[in-house]
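Input record, target 12 of the design panel.
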């Protein structure tokens, strides 16, 4: 583990999660104490941070509490060094000095804990000097950057060591390093190593927002390797690019599909979400078809932070400069990677909980599956994953072993998601013993619905409907009613309705052939796709599973339920399909958003409905009543071509009205509880969603 990783991650891990009760002063105190305790040269100055900016030949200190050695060498070579050992009375902390002092102290905390001298360093050099510098070439090996620059990027000089001829990244093939783009190249730590690697990359481009570091690289490294170029990346950052143009992103200054390896070491760990998304796209743009991006990230599991809203996917540790360390929800990360057209091909989780993960990304193909480990051990190495551990590991210790996996039925649950409390449990009407239940459940790759039963048996799936079934407004009893469940998926609602006493019929698609796929105008039909039927119905009719309806059949058999099933596109539903018999209740759960024509679907539903329709869908909140146009949902992700519309409340109501229903109410909402976030079919069940429930009546 690299020390710079260790260090910035330690802040995250130590102070992490920290958004709640700890004040920022508390955060800093802990971090500072730790580093002062570690006796690192930069710590005391970082903690006190009150070096007065002066011309470079006149460095001095005015704050009490630490000593400063003045360096007067012009140019880049000498900077003040500070002795923590000579700190009388210990360091001073943010908040203890004057307003200006504190402000500057906080700024100095803003990024790497070692960036203690950055502001002074920047001030001490004119821009010209910084970029042009002195073309100082001594010896045959690339020189070591001056300590000031080294400290801006990491604390451990061992990381600057060059192992001539050796691969820079042992886990990466030499051939992969033919052309290297180094995003956030700093003062050339990795460039120097690549210059000495055998074989040396034929092309190397390094970019960084810190102008002076780029100046140093140009002046001191290009001489050794003319094929190595360095560009200043003109993007603003409080700590490292305060003079840069006030823009948060800028395209990589290179052509499409031109690099076999992109390196972004300790970069995404300092980017805001919008920046991270932008640069993932840029990564995809410049990687060759078989290129790899070697990136590093801090991860946490949002499930373990129930106070976060759905849209909150990052944790920060420094309120003055949040880019100090940015910790991402791993599910957001996978989604962002997919949206960028990338795929996780390898991960190296950190040896110590909370530290940086190394993640290799490559272009995504239709068959790509993210190689992201969801096993207990890997999850335990995320920031904040100590929840539930009995003892906190000390510095440098590995995390305590994670608790043993709960007994489960084939699908490994994500380790830190507690089982739902107070969830509605269906009645286990099956005669099958537990082992057989588990065996049959395990035959499915995944379950779209979770099933929790009153005898304690359960199979956990993407969504636990029972967690909030009370919010849908279904009657307490459905005795004697006929209910149609359109788009039944894994059938949880259908079995619930049956257990409430209803006679239930379900409808689901024959697969993608029946889906409204964006960009496709027709329905290929099952004959064209030449799929064999997945099973046959009671009258010998062929039955095909949709991507999620296999669970319906598995559970129907296990429970011995009498729920009927019809394969159909929603628009083809008509009274004739059911012998002219209408339904008291027609339910469309989370299907309207997947349809090109939601009004047409509701009209088909009305054609078989005698009384009430209930439909659920995600909506946009907060738009004015008069806005009745739906928002286009597509393309939701690159893989998702079947999500169409995101209505606002008014629009959702008008869908029912346009379809001929009356007495429309769309005020109810329910939580669609994501039970086990998982990857399947190249997608993730991605966290809880609030959905709106519409109820309407046939005139
Ligand atoms: C998001 S799942 C919802 C499952 C379940 N109703 C629920 O609320 O949990 C959508 C379901 O609609 C089905 N579906 C999607 N498009 C369809 C179409 N055009 N015709 C019929 N069914 C469709 C899918 O196969 C899937 O079972």
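The sequence produced for target 12 reads:
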């Amino acid at each position: 583990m690299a020390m710079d990783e260790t260090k910035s991650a330690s802040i995250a891990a130590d102070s992490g999660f920290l958004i709640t009760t700890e004040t920022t002063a508390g955060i800093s105190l802990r971090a500072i104490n730790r580093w002062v305790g570690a006796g690192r040269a930069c710590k005391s100055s970082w903690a006190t941070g009150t070096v007065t900016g002066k011309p470079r030949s006149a460095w001095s200190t005015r704050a009490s509490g630490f000593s400063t050695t003045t360096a007067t060498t012009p140019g880049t070579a000498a900077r003040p060094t500070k002795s923590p050992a000579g700190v009388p009375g210990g360091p001073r902390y943010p908040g203890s000095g004057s307003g200006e002092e504190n402000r500057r102290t906080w700024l100095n905390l803003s990024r790497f804990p070692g960036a203690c001298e950055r502001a002074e360093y920047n001030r001490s050099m004119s821009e010209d000097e910084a970029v042009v510098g002195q073309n100082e070439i001594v010896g045959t090996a690339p020189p070591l950057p001056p300590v000031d620059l080294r400290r801006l990027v990491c604390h451990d000089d061992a990381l600057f060591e060059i192992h001539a001829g050796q691969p820079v990244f042992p886990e990466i093939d030499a051939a992969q390093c033919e052309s290297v783009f180094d995003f956030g190249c700093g003062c050339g730590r990795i460039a120097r190593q690549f210059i000495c690697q055998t074989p040396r990359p034929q092309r190397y481009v390094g970019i960084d927002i810190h102008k002076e570091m780029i100046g140093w690289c140009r002046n001191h490294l290009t001489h050794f390797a003319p094929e190595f170029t360095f560009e200043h990346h003109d993007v603003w950052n409080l700590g490292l690019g305060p003079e840069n143009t006030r823009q948060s992103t800028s395209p990589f200054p290179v052509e499409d599909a031109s690099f076999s390896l992109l390196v972004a070491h300790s970069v995404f760990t300092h980017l805001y979400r919008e920046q991270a998304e932008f640069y993932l796209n840029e990564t995809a743009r410049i990687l060759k078809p078989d290129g790899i991006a070697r990136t590093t990230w801090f991860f946490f599991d949002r499930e373990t932070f129930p106070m976060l809203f759905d849209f909150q996917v990052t944790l920060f540790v420094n309120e003055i400069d949040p880019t100090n360390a940015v910790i991402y929800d791993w599910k957001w990360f996978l989604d962002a990677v997919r949206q960028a057209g990338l795929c996780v091909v390898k991960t190296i989780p950190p040896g110590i909980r909370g530290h940086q993960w190394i993640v290799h990304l490559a272009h995504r193909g239709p068959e790509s599956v993210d190689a992201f480990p969801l096993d207990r051990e890997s999850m335990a190495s995320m920031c904040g994953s100590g929840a539930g551990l009995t003892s906190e590991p000390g510095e440098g210790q590995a995390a305590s072993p994670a608790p043993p996996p709960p007994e489960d039925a084939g699908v490994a649950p994500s380790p830190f998601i507690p089982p739902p409390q107070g969830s509605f449990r269906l009645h286990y009407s099956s005669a099958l013993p537990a082992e057989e239940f588990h065996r049959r459940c395990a035959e499915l790759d995944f379950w779209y619905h979770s099933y929790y039963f009153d005898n304690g048996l359960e199979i956990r799936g993407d969504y636990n409907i029972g967690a909030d079934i009370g919010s849908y407004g279904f009657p307490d009893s459905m005795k004697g009613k006929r209910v149609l469940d359109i788009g039944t998926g894994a059938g949880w609602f259908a079995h619930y309705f049956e257990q409430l006493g209803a006679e239930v019929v379900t409808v689901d698609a024959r697969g993608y052939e029946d889906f409204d796929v964006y960009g496709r105008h027709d329905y290929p039909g099952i004959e064209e796709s030449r799929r064999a039927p997945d099973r046959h119905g009671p009258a010998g009719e062929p039955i095909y599973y949709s991507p999620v309806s296999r669970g319906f059949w598995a559970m129907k058999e296990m429970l011995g339920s009498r729920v009927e099933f019809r394969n159909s596109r929603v628009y083809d539903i008509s009274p004739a399909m059911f012998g002219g018999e209408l339904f008291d209740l027609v339910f469309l759960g989370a299907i309207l958003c997947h349809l090109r024509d939601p009004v047409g679907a509701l009209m088909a539903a009305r054609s078989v409905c005698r009384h009430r329709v209930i439909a659920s869908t995600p909506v946009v909140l907060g738009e004015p009543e008069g806005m009745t146009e739906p928002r286009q949902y597509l393309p939701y992700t690159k893989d998702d071509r079947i999500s169409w519309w995101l209505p606002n409340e008014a629009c959702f109501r008008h869908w029912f009205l346009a379809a001929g229903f009356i007495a429309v109410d769309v005020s109810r909402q329910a939580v669609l509880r994501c039970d086990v976030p998982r990857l399947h079919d190249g997608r993730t069940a991605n966290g809880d969603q609030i959905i709106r429930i519409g109820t309407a009546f046939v005139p």
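Residues 27 and 416 are 25 Å apart (CA to CA).
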